[in-house]
Amino acid sequence: MAPTLRRVVAIAALHLRVLAGAERMDRPVRWVAVSELEDPTPFLEGGELVLTTGMRLRDDEAAAVPYVARLVGREVTGIGFGVGLGHEEVPATLVRAAADAGLPLVEVPRDTPSSRSARRSATCSPPSSTRS
Fold first, then answer.
1. DSSP character string of 58-99
2. Tens of pLDDT along 77-89?
3. How far is CA 50 from each of CA 16, 29, 32, 107, 131, rounded to the nearest angstrom?
4. I need a labelling partner for 16 at 20 to 30 A (CA). Which of 9, 25, 58, 125 fits?
5. Are 76 and 42 in contact (CB under 8 A)?
6. Inter-axis angle of helices 61-73 and 92-101, nearest 10
7. Are 116 and 37 in contact (CB under 8 A)?
8. What is the edge-to-edge ordering of all strands in the sheet holding 78-82?
């Protein structure tokens, strides 16, 4: 059975922080997809935690609202937004759009590699003593 987003966020080694959609954290994470596309939905099946650094996402409602709407329409489980590369913090317009849509949005710190997030999400195994 797939882990819930709540269980993934509880993995202390990932240092994830919930910014929106806390009421929907019990949805299963069937897969983790990494994408910087403005519209990743053709490559998603539903149930994914979509990891992005928002490289192509502008910090305005004209970009954030349709992006979130497309992901909600594809029935993704949530968005994991990596900070420290393209954006120093998760854009406020994305936080508002996700909150308004009820889509979970979690902040992923720069020092948490997406490969580690994906692997731990898939297995929900406790962190090992070695770095991944």
1. -SSHHHHHHHHHHHHHTT--EEEEE-SSS-SS--HHHHHHHH
2. 999 999 998 889 9
3. 14, 10, 6, 12, 23
4. 58
5. no
6. 40
7. no
8. 17-20, 105-108, 78-82, 48-52, 31-34
pTM of structure: 0.85
Tokens of 13: 């080694």
Phi/psi of residue 117, nearest 5 degrees? -60, -45
Q: What's the one-letter identity of residue 1?
A: M
Q: Which residues, other chains included, contact 71 with Cβ-Cβ below 8 Å and sequence gap of 6+?
A: 40, 41, 44, 50, 79, 103
Q: How confident is the model at residue 128 (pLDDT cuts 50, 70, 90)?
A: very low
In the chain the first and final C-alpha atoms are separated, in Å, by 24
